[in-house]
Design a protein that fits this description.
- 48% of the residues lie in helices and 15% in strands.
- Helix 1 runs parallel beside helix 2 and helix 12 crosses helix 14.
């Protein structure tokens, strides 16, 4: 929903101005296909999505590589998601390149996407009785965008009791919220690959509020992160813990949650959603409704879901021929100059 809205906003704004932009995004799996779907075929936009080669599911990859429209480009970068996201940030910090190709972003580093996600929280909360009744949310979390939208909703006045960050075994956010240290220690592939992240862009925004909107202090933390990590101050940790709870879900627990939920409710979960459900069950207050945000269709991860349940989830009818569609993808190294050169070449043609 949020990405579809951004696509139409871009189209409307560019239609009025008569300008053209180049959109870049990094994805751990889901954002990329959503962006390509939102922008494919639009007149005033070229879209380049970087995803970590070999670290997304086949369905996620094919959703990005099978569209035939000439304005969308899938780039398989050597490395993991944090590498792809770092190169996107590098492109925005290369001012000559940024201005020369009229660069814009679409994943959750784009504030408009976070604002659109705020709607999810209001809609869900009202359906369960808000504002006359408090509700809580558990959010499967990688890049911290969706959970940060919940934080914004709470600051806007939505009566949210608790915002729970749910991580897989790449649990840097849970470790930070528990111990006050933000120190990446490598990305370990999982069956919930969209959460295989160690450098969460939107956590920087949460830190900004935790440090009383002191941009210089947060900039210092980001410099320390480049050198290996940072410690959160006592006051900021108190602010973060007042805003967020957190929990972790390992691979075996994820699979067990998928299987148990299917047996007890008939609902087939994707691995990311299962991470959220597991943490929600562990931390839920029975007196307050707990909503877990579901982040993907289980058919995006058929091998993991089948291993957990014995059921292989079918693709939606409109995607039934996805495995038969030809793919169009460019493999590229984790090299800023090479990526920028390719983008310049593609938009020139």
């Amino acid at each position: 929903f949020a990405m579809q809205l951004i696509g139409q906003l871009f189209q409307a704004a560019l239609g009025r101005s008569g300008e053209r932009v180049t959109i870049v995004g990094a994805t751990s799996g889901d954002t990329g296909s959503a962006a390509i779907e939102a922008f494919r075929g639009l007149d005033a936009v070229d879209v380049f999505i970087l995803y970590p080669n070999g670290r997304v599911s086949e369905v996620q990859r094919r959703q990005m590589t099978t569209p035939i429209e000439a304005n969308v480009h899938a780039l398989a970068i050597d490395g993991h998601f944090d590498d792809a996201q770092a190169r996107v940030k590098d492109m925005f910090n290369d001012f000559d390149f940024r201005d020369g190709v009229r660069l814009a972003g679409v994943n959750s580093i784009n504030w408009a996407r976070v604002l659109a996600q705020v709607v999810y929280y209001f809609t869900a909360a009202v359906s369960l009785g808000a504002p006359d009744r408090k509700v809580s949310f558990t959010v499967p979390t990688g890049n911290f965008g969706d959970i940060f939208a919940g934080y914004i909703a709470k600051r806007m006045g939505l009566p949210i009791d608790r915002l729970v960050v749910a991580t897989n075994h790449n649990d840097i956010l849970h470790r930070c919220l528990s111990g006050g240290e933000y120190r990446p220690d490598g990305v370990i592939p999982s069956i919930s690959p969209s959460m295989d992240i160690q450098v969460s862009s939107n956590f920087e925004r949460a830190l900004f509020y935790a440090y009383n909107q002191d941009g210089a202090a947060v900039a210092q933390l980001m410099d320390e992160l480049k050198a290996g990590g940072f410690s959160v101050s006592q006051g900021a940790m108190q602010a973060l813990r007042e805003a967020f709870d957190s929990g972790r879900c390992g691979e075996d627990e994820t699979a067990a949650t998928i299987g148990r939920t299917l047996k007890t409710t008939g609902e087939l979960l994707c691995p990311h959603t299962a991470v959220g459900v597991h943490v929600a069950e562990a931390l839920r207050d029975p007196s307050v409704p707990m909503i877990t945000l579901a982040t993907a269709h289980p058919a995006k991860f058929p091998d993991a879901v089948e291993a957990a349940t014995g059921v292989r989830p079918p693709l939606p009818p409109r995607m039934a021929d996805l495995y038969d569609r030809p793919e169009r993808v460019t493999r590229i190294g984790n090299d800023l100059a090479a990526i920028e050169s390719l983008i310049r070449e593609r938009i020139a043609n």
